[in-house]
Amino acid sequence: MHYETAYSPRSGAPSPALSGYRTGNSTSYFLPRTQNYMPSQQYGYGNYYSPSSPGMIYSAGSGRGGYSGFPSHSYGEDQYSRSPESSGHDGYDGNYLRPEVHRPRFIRDRRGRSPRQADIDSLKDEYEAEPSAVEGLHRALWPNSDLQFDLYYAPPDSERARDGPALDNNAMVIRIVSDDFPWSIDARTSKEDAANPVTHRDVMQSLYDFFQKELTDPEFANASESRKAKITKAWEARQVDEEDTLVKRIDWLGKRTRFDGLTKLDTSRMPPPLLPGRKPCAETWILRLRNRDE
């Protein structure tokens, strides 16, 4: 009797190549080496695996001398069908004890950002919202506040319920600049409240009123070609709600009309450009905008 190769219990493929024992031309961690296998007293064979050993293929061989009280005989061809079957451990590379690397699914957030970009943006938001950047500012005007305001629409009257000074120092004028447009906007109180400080609703109303003004020919002519295309596209989209209207400053912003907070401009390091004769304003703030679809 002799064996040809060793199978794993339910597979025709050789067992995984792990540190174990060699049987035939494959390595197995299920069975010991034949030379270290003690003769089977039960079946009377010599230094071979017994027929009950799992996964062995036997071929016809010569008889072996039996032990006392057990006759010698040959073990014939395997009469059972032993076609290979799939195995629960098939395909393992041997490193099955190594924990699986955690790879979360790649899901974009509601603003279409990847997790990495969202992390970067949140770090920027936290940096720009440090105490030095929003010191003295009404919390409703902070970046990432719960204030929902689109410059495309007039501020809701419900904002009066939580109205308050925009700045702790009760400033009478707040100048607003931005990278999204070339103008500077002075937020002031209404004529009826001229003696009172600027409120956070005054800021929203001033922004709305400014961008409802018509865009002038020189302003449009001085815009870049990409900006002109964006203005035209925004104006065409606005015609669905407002027929026969001229181009307005709100069209300059395209879809970036959502209020996203104010941060203080350090005028000592970055003085805003001013027309001749226009005085600088101590309270100059940067307006952050985001896409209305976000």
Automatic annotation (TrEMBL):
<feature type="domain" description="DUF6699">
    <location>
        <begin position="149"/>
        <end position="264"/>
    </location>
</feature>
<feature type="region of interest" description="Disordered">
    <location>
        <begin position="70"/>
        <end position="127"/>
    </location>
</feature>
<dbReference type="Pfam" id="PF20415">
    <property type="entry name" value="DUF6699"/>
</dbReference>
<protein>
    <recommendedName>
        <fullName>DUF6699 domain-containing protein</fullName>
    </recommendedName>
</protein>
<feature type="compositionally biased region" description="Basic and acidic residues">
    <location>
        <begin position="99"/>
        <end position="109"/>
    </location>
</feature>
<feature type="compositionally biased region" description="Basic and acidic residues">
    <location>
        <begin position="116"/>
        <end position="126"/>
    </location>
</feature>
<dbReference type="InterPro" id="IPR046522">
    <property type="entry name" value="DUF6699"/>
</dbReference>
<feature type="region of interest" description="Disordered">
    <location>
        <begin position="1"/>
        <end position="26"/>
    </location>
</feature>
